[in-house]
Every structure is written in C-alpha cells, then in structure tokens.
C-alpha cells in the first residue's frame, strides 16, 4: 500500500491533534484580484487549539472571514483567530466562515491546485493543497442552494446585492 504525502490533494494533513481536510477554492473570473477558499478543521477529543493565521502562495494576503446575514444583507468581517474546542469539526464554507485570498497573483482556474498554510497556536503550520472548483460550486457536500450570484456580487465591505451583475450573467 502506497503512503501519500501529508499535503496530498483531497487528503488531510495532521499536526499535534489538529487535522485540516477537504480544502478547495472557488474559480475566479479573469481580472479578479480576490478569491475564496474553504476547508474543514478537526481536533482530536483531547486537543484544543487556535487558528491564528492563514497564507497562500497564490495571494499576497489571506484572512479568515465570517459571513452572516443581517436584515437580509450579507455582512463579512475579518476574524483575527478562531478557537478550536476538543473533538470539534469547524467547516469553513460558502456563506459561512471562509478564507479570503487578496491580491491574487493569477486567476484561480477550475482544475488548478492552490497551496494553503494554516498556522495554529500549538500545532504550528499545516499545509494543504486546495483543488479549484467551479465558480458556482458550493463544496464537497454538493449543496447547490446558490442564489446565482458570483464572488463579484459580494463586495469586500460585506454588502451583497442580487442585482449587481458584471456582464457575465446570462438571463
């Protein structure tokens, strides 16, 4: 039986009781400078930790953001850190907590792979490879209750307007 490297595509990487798995990023339209990545963080039943930083070789800056609906408006805010409780699975997903990639060095194309490094207070850095999926993809769970907008319709300051289209939507 062949052993896969810890950062193998689609596999998880584990350090000191913290596992990062199911990482993926959403494809970006040409010219976009902001992307998003999603993944799962699991802790063993005896492990608590704190996610303190994220980075990627494809972006100048990466941050964890939280999304929430307030009065029908999608709000996004940056999280400085996320506390992880023992035996917990934290899912970073579309319309929830997620990783924002700023100042992309090139567009994220479907089928490509993106390197992500998550830094934890105790477990240290954990590197994973995220496969790039289509712009409307909602992740490995296959949830497609998507409003039809794309990443461009969500401005960085958190306002989301369904009537904002950028010429790439065909009605």
Automatic annotation (TrEMBL):
<dbReference type="Pfam" id="PF04314">
    <property type="entry name" value="PCuAC"/>
</dbReference>
<feature type="region of interest" description="Disordered">
    <location>
        <begin position="142"/>
        <end position="171"/>
    </location>
</feature>
<dbReference type="InterPro" id="IPR007410">
    <property type="entry name" value="LpqE-like"/>
</dbReference>
<dbReference type="InterPro" id="IPR036182">
    <property type="entry name" value="PCuAC_sf"/>
</dbReference>
<protein>
    <recommendedName>
        <fullName>Copper chaperone PCu(A)C</fullName>
    </recommendedName>
</protein>
<dbReference type="InterPro" id="IPR058248">
    <property type="entry name" value="Lxx211020-like"/>
</dbReference>
